[in-house]
Every structure is written in C-alpha cells, then in structure tokens.
Amino acid sequence: MLISVQALRGFAAWIVVGVHFMQLFFDFEAHNALEYLVADKGGIGVDIFFVISGFVIFLATADKPLTPWRFMLMRVARIVPAYWFYTLLMVLLVASMPSMFPYEHLEPSYVLMSLLFIAAPSEPGVEVYPLLGVGWTLNFEMLFYGLFSFALLVRESYRLWVVATLLYLVCYIGPVLGLASGFYSNGIVLEFLMGIVIGMLYRRGLCRARPWLPLLGIAAASIAVYHGADIPRALEWGVPSAIVVISCVTLEPYFQGSRFLKWLGDCSYSVYLIHVPVLAVGQFVAERLGINPYAMLLVCIVVTAVGAWGSYQWLEKRTYPALKRWFGVEERASLSRQKY
C-alpha cells in the first residue's frame, strides 16, 4: 500500500469525525470559520474514500488471476467483521440506553438489512441510513465490489468500461424500472470510476511530476472545494478529491518511510466505524454534566484513536487472515499463481 494513500485515508477518516462532531454537538450550527469549514465541507472525506477505493481495488486486482467469487470473499473478510462488530455494539447501546438514541429503532428486519448492506429507511419515509450511520457509504462500497467482481472476467484494460456500464444500469436504469433502490441513484458512485482511472494512469507510470505540480493540484482542489458551486457532488467534490488523490500518489516518494502516516491509514477504517458510538456517548455525557463540547471532543479523539488502534490490532488484523484461511482464499490463490 502506498504510504501517501494511507495518509490520505487517515486524513479523510478524521475529517468525517469532525463532521459528526458538528452534527451531534451543534446540529451543524457553526460559530466560527473553522466550525463552518468542517461542517460545510468536511463531507468531502467520503468522496476521498470513494476515489481511493476505486484506485486501490483496481491496483489490488491487477495481474492477479482472481475469480469474482474469490474477490468477493476477500472483500467480505476485510470489511464485514469490523462493521458487524460495531453495528452489534450499536444494538447493545440502543437497547440498553434508548434515551441516548431517541431516533433509532431495533426492528429485527432493519437490523438485519443494516448488517447485510441493504439500503432501507431508518424510519418509514425517512432518509436511508443503516443502524450504524456511516454504514450508508459501505452500502455503496459493497455495490461497487459486487459490480467490479464481474469486471474481473474481462481484460484489465476493459474493466473501467465494464464497471461504468454496470453502475449506469444499476444506479440509473435499475431504479427507473423498479429493479434497484433509488438510494443508489447518486452521482457519488462516479467517484469509484475516477479512482480506477487514477489506478490505470499509475500502472502506466504516468503519476510522476516535479513536486510543484501535485502541490499546485492540491491547492487548486482545496480552493475549488472551499468556494463550492451549484453543481452535482461528483463534480463539486468528486473531481477535487480525484485531483488530491492523484497528487498525493505523485508525491509518494516524499511519504515513504513514515510509520506514523502508515499507522493513520491502517487505523482509518476502525476510526471511521468506532467514532460514531464514541461521539454519541460523549455528546450524551457532555449534555447531562454540562461539560464544554470541545473538552469532550478531546476526550472523544483520544478514545477514538486508542480504540481504533486496538480495533485494528485485535479485530481487523486477526479476523482478515483467519477468514481468508477459512474461506480457502490463500490456498487457492497460491495454486492459481503456480498455474499461471
């Protein structure tokens, strides 16, 4: 894994933490320029994740004789254990402290659909969110993985077009025909394609330039996001995110050797999952005891960072190889390498 991508992944995760702090503690009501910036622009962390996902998945499958089934098993082994753990943690929190989560409910069908990455209303007629709120992005991720698995049946150079066609059919034609949820009719899915394009450029050795050019790209993307525009999200935030990702990839030689940045990336998935219950509990305690929100934020940051490190070490690192062995993925992969 490129250290630059790891660093960017960690940065994106902590931006999302800031957004949810503003949501839970201030209901997005900003009191200064920094709060406004986080509340109004911090959602771009998700867009960066999606671009990175397209980039990483394309590179991770290049030149590998993966079948669609084996690819999906590997994705399930990587994504599902931690997500299920924190979703079930939310079940326990909501069941034991319902006053802390007045808008959540625990109907078995809703919990099951949350666990299975199926888009469903959190309440009748209300926005589509799983029990663990950030799971809505994983619904898109799992859709992307499923569609990308079919692209493994064709040559590497055609995979972008296969995924693009399938995304169009599922996300835009499917809802019209009643074959897919309208939840997926979101231009944000185009950001996966942007990541694949960056992966193709990287594979061809085209992500090289003098440092001033990628730095200029990051500055231009930041200015574009700050000023914003009344255009679809894939253009307003997706394109700048893609520019930031390709710029960081180009700057990879300057990131190499940083153990701290690698650690940020390693723990980013657990940070993304664990911060929701941590902030929810922190907001509840701060409100009841009259604690300053920013004092509680510091506590939540420490708890999230320590908890994410433990989650990565004891949950992610242990379950992923264990499940791959259980699924028989590693053994089959080695046999495939011998065959080819």
UniProtKB/TrEMBL annotation:
GO terms for molecular function: acyltransferase activity. InterPro entries: Acyl_transf_3_dom, Acyltransferase_3. Residues 4-308 form the Acyltransferase domain. It holds the Pfam family Acyl_transf_3. Keywords: Acyltransferase, Membrane, Transferase, Transmembrane, Transmembrane helix. The chain crosses the membrane at residues 7-26, 42-62, 83-103, 131-153, 160-177, 183-202, 211-229, 291-315. This is Acyltransferase. It comes from Pseudomonas azadiae.
